[in-house]
TrEMBL record:
Name recorded for this polypeptide: DUF402 domain-containing protein
Coiled-coil portions: none
The organism of origin for this protein: Paractinoplanes rhizophilus
Annotated Pfam families: DUF402 (PF04167)
Keywords: Hydrolase
DUF402 domain mapped to chain residues: 13-152
Length: 168
């Protein structure tokens, strides 16, 4: 499988984090990237420059959409962790880049509840960094679409992702 880097930046281009993965393939939902337990994550914030992933996961980068999803294997308490982002772009032969727009959605394995996180951070950055209207609209639309799909377990968030996760 081809190595691929998933690069997350903040608005304005500042590096945020980078995850080393393996390209699994593509389907109607988008591009699937494996990040097995122990995959390297480089952080560009806080006091830890690098880390490793703690659970097997597969990441879905939608063909179109203002988000990306991380589907986590057991025993993680979460089965989904999604970042609201700008649509992904291939920025190199083995590099996908998105702009992280702060809002995160988490679905918990035990009870299926979906929580929206960091809306306050989005509002703060919307003002301090001057997010253009198109970015604000895309982010809010992406968060709403994700929340509805995660809550209803609409595909690919029902059973579909499991076939990709099984390849990790």
């Amino acid at each position: 499988m081809t190595a691929v880097d998933l690069v997350l930046r903040k608005f304005g281009g500042r590096p945020h984090r980078q995850v080393a993965g393996r390209l699994l393939g593509e389907d109607a939902y988008g591009t699937w990237i494996a990040t097995p337990r122990g995959s390297v994550v480089s952080y560009h914030y806080g006091d830890r420059p690098t880390g490793i992933t703690r659970a097997d996961a597969v990441r879905l980068i939608p063909a179109q959409g203002w988000w990306m999803a991380m589907c986590l294997a057991e025993p993680d308490a979460r089965d989904m962790y999604c970042d609201v982002t700008t649509p992904a772009e291939w920025t190199g032969p083995a590099e996908l880049t998105v702009v992280d727009l702060d809002i995160d959605l988490v679905r918990y394995r035990a009870d299926g509840r979906v929580e929206v996180e960091d809306e306050d951070e989005f509002e703060e950055h919307r003002l301090s960094l001057g997010y253009p209207d198109a970015i604000v609209e895309g982010a809010l639309r992406g968060a709403a679409e994700l929340r509805a799909a995660l809550t209803a377990a609409d595909e690919p968030f029902g059973e579909h992702y499991r076939k990709w996760l099984a390849l990790v």
